[in-house]
Write a structure and sequence with these properties.
The complex is a heterodimer of chains A (78) and B (241).
Chain A: E1 2-5, H1 7-13, H2 18-25, H3 29-36, H4 44-53, H5 58-61, E2 62-65
Antiparallel strand pairs in A: 1-2
Chain B: H1 2-8, H2 12-26, H3 37-49, H4 58-87, H5 102-123, H6 125-141, H7 146-149, H8 156-179, H9 181-206, H10 210-238
Helix pairs in contact in B: 2-3, 3-5, 4-5, 5-6, 5-10, 6-8, 6-10, 8-9, 9-10
The chains are: A mainly alpha (78), B mainly alpha (241).
Chain lengths: 78, 241
Amino acid sequence: MKLINHIKQHRARLDLTQEDLARRVGVRRQAILAIEKGKYVPSALLAFQLARALEMPVGELFQLEESPGDGPSQPTGE
Amino acid sequence: MNTMTMRRLPSADWMAFGVALAAVFLKYLEPTLMTFIALVVFLPSILREVGVLGDGDEWSRGIMHRAGFHAVLAAVAVVTLDYLTVNFGGFDQKGQGIWPLGSSMMRLTVTWVFLVSYVIQYWGAREGVFRILLVEALLFMSPILTVFRNEYPGQTALVALSAVVGAGIFVGLAFLARRWPRPGALLLVLLLLAQMGGLVRATTLGGWSWGFASSVLQAFLVFGISAVVLWRERAQALSPR
């Protein structure tokens, strides 16, 4: 299971460069690059800042993707 | 564009890198400058940790901490190897272990591991190795300063030529590794093996020296690590997302 994101698409929608977005959320451009490539999973704080900068709900910007090898989903506890 | 340039030029990392590189070159004129290289390399990180520099984000802080952790692991490995060689049939009867000038070797290890780890994490495998190999090319050019001191009378042209050719090889390797990571990784391994061959020959001829030991260590830390990350980068690029 891994976290995927749609930052690149929504950044393009708003016509923002990586540098623009980095400046808006107060990180380096390389950090945006690493997040977009899925090499770095941001903290919850940064995820919410990115969502706000891209005018998106955080749940739509970041999503969990199950790999074929993953087991069944977490038990609900009910 | 201007804003980007303004933001990057005064970065503490670049300034530290520039000072360290200048010290490497000027060591031929003033050898004590080498002593300060490790301090200069670590200075931005030290200042960030104590809160003087506030230019880091969570991502760059994570990189810095991981690079530091890698440097600590490498330091532990060097200390262990040194301890083993001193206490269990070491090469040197004077209690110095396998490493001549042990503390210098430790400083070299920690500095290189930190730098290589930081650069590769910051820029990614291909771009990181590209930059590391360009730095190696610059380092290869540094003996050219000996020409001005006339250290090798009658061999000035040879020294200059070998520096330029060596640097050229690294520049070519840098571009090749960026374009074709796996062939680049294989060439780096060959370079490492050649360096080891040189060490074996030097050991047979005249035993360990600081220069040979440091160059072998540097080869392992730079070529070895670079080759591994380039190889893995290609594997990751080929794997389905």
